Amino acid sequence: MTTGLTAKAQGFTLVEVMVALFVVAVALPALMFQLSTQLTSTGVLEEKTLASWVAQDQLALYALQTPDRLQTVDGSQSELQGERLLAGRQWLWLLSTEATPVPGMVRQTLSVYPDAIARQQQRDAFVEIMVYARTATASGVR
Questions:
Q1: What value does the mean pLDDT of the chain take?
Q2: CA separation for the pair 69, 57 (Å, rounded)
């Protein structure tokens, strides 16, 4: 049996182990925070994407179902609203039409909310799309 320097040189000292544990203890919470932030951002991005799909679908349906939809606009503001089921969630959409300073033009704003409660609490819409359109009389349609 040799009990020289080779026996003492094996393994880590307590200080080395404590430093390594300290580094791990500092790095893990930072990593977990970063991961949770990315997961939250992914969820928000998914919701905004779904809401934008609802908005685009509703604008397209509105344009296809009522091509002469703007004949009734007389300078006053009108609103339509409804619900749409997409990806297992109920979405509330609100389409408001209002006159602009330019004769023959109206502004339509379509807002999509995650549910009716969010609208009642006057929270911001997930998505809001604004389009400008000519009225039926301005485009020559009678």
A1: 81
A2: 17
Locate all alpha helices (DSSP H) within the chain, ordered by sequence.
Answer: 5-8, 14-65, 116-120
Contacts of 95 (CB under 8 A, 6+ apart): 58, 59, 62, 79, 80, 81, 108, 109, 110
pLDDT at residue 119 is higher than 70: no
Give the per-residue pLDDT at 71.
46
CB atoms within 10 A of CB 41: 10
Residue 37 DSSP SS3? helix
Most confidently predicted of 18-27, 63-72, 84-93, 124-133: 18-27
Residue 77's identity, in one-letter code, is Q
How buried is residue 128: exposed, middle or buried, by Cβ count under 10 Å (0-12/13-18/19+)? middle
Write down the pLDDT at residue 72. Answer: 46
Domain definitions of the chain by residue range? 12-134
Whole-number Å distance between alpha carbons of 35 and 17: 27
CATH superfamily of 12-134: GSPII I/J protein-like (3.30.1300.30)
